[in-house]
Amino acid sequence: MTTYHSKKEEIAEQIILSEVNNLSSGSSVVTGSGCAACHILFTLASKMQISEQDASDLLSEVLLHNLQLNEYFMQMIENIHMKQRMMGLAFFIKRREAKDRYIDSNFKNVLAELSADLLNYGVDVVFRKLLISSMSLEIAKNIGIDHHAATEELYYYMRKKDQETHENMLQLSITFMKRSRVKGYSKSYI
């Protein structure tokens, strides 16, 4: 067991471990296109009587400090979301080192692409790109469809409600830019 800063983290570790064990042993708690990580997050929030955001932070904190549990958690996610559902099998069958190299490559490519877009098109275009990506990812998770389909659904909706969606995104963009100028850049946000 890992040494934590609080009793709350120790309790959270036990809940997370119990749920990972339960899901890894073939429990049918997560069915269809349900999310195993979300199940653990919601269970943590419910059992500890905390908000989903606090549960998310606590889950991240526990997994960050307990690398063995983090590895076990990831194996359970891959088993349910890739192997059992027959999705991403080419990625699933790779060794952990190859998976990490693939993720590292994609991580660096996305940062390079966003940096180039920032230089060539400006902050508002990059912000809009990140916002649309975040929205479509949320839709994909909630509906249980792939990211490309969710992106097309989002674009369809945005075209249908062009004026309204444009105004909403513009308002968020303005608010974001104002707040980022007031607070300034800080490495502590990263």
Walk me through what this model shows.
- This protein has helices at 7-24, 36-48, 52-65, 67-84, 89-92, 96-121, 123-143, 147-160, 162-183.
- With 190 residues, it is an all-alpha fold.
- α3 crosses α4, α6 crosses α7 (123-143) and α7 (123-143) packs across α8.
- It starts with 6 loop residues before the first helix and ends in a 7-residue tail after the last helix.
- The protein has 9 helices and no strands.
- It has 2 domains: 7-90, no CATH class; 95-189, no CATH class.
Mean pLDDT: 85
Shape: globular
Order of SSEs: HHHHHHHHH
How many helical stretches? 9
The number of domains:
2
Distance linking N and C termini: 28 Å
Largest sheet: none
Q: What is the alpha-carbon Rg in Å?
A: 20 Å
Strand fraction: under 5%
The structure class reads: mainly alpha
Indicate the percent of residues in helices.
over 70%
Low-confidence blocks of residues: 186-190
- Overall strand count: 0
